[in-house]
């Protein structure tokens, strides 16, 4: 039970940190590097699957990935770019903190439900894949939007 509480508090802290980082990042021009580094850095977390306690079945992988992709739709819909001078900026959406906190609440409820059926390690593995699916999909869409906007600026 202690691990469940600690992991939930850690997860909430990371979500709040993500909101703060995103709002600060909106003050600087976007770049390909700034868009792709977060999922690449996050991918190192997949090393958790080296340890058997975190391993999950392929069906659980697909379930977590699909839920992550569905959750990413909310982030994709609130991520827009605008041109200011010769730079491209990510426009901070007023709905972003609300959406991120709503996704946090959703994930916490699902985590509590799933955590009562499978081990903490398996739950951690599933939620890593869910988060990676959500952030990866969102960032791929952001990269596509950014590159399209940059292409129209060049022509």
Given the helix and strand composition, which structural class is it?
mainly alpha
Q: Please give the count of helices.
A: 5
Helix content percent band: over 70%
Can you summarize the main beta sheet? 2 strands, antiparallel
- Calculate the terminal CA-CA distance, rounded to whole Å: 58 Å
Number of strands: 2
Query: How are the strands of the biggest sheet laid out side by side?
Result: 1-2
Overall geometry comes to: elongated
**What are the segments in which pLDDT stays under 50 over at least 5 consecutive residues?**
none
Mean pLDDT: 87
The string of secondary-structure elements, in order, is HHHEEHH
Radius of gyration of CA atoms, rounded to a whole number? 17 Å
Strand content: 5-15%
Tell me what you see in this structure.
The model has no long low-confidence stretch (mean pLDDT 87). The chain is elongated. Helix 1 (2-25) packs antiparallel against helix 4, helix 3 (58-77) packs across helix 5 and helix 4 runs antiparallel to helix 5 (120-154). The longest helix has 35 residues, at 120-154. It is mainly α and 155 residues long. The protein is built from 5 helices and 2 strands; from the N terminus they run αααββαα. A two-stranded antiparallel sheet has the order 1-2. It has helices at 2-25, 32-43, 58-77, 96-115, 120-154, and strands at 80-84, 87-91.
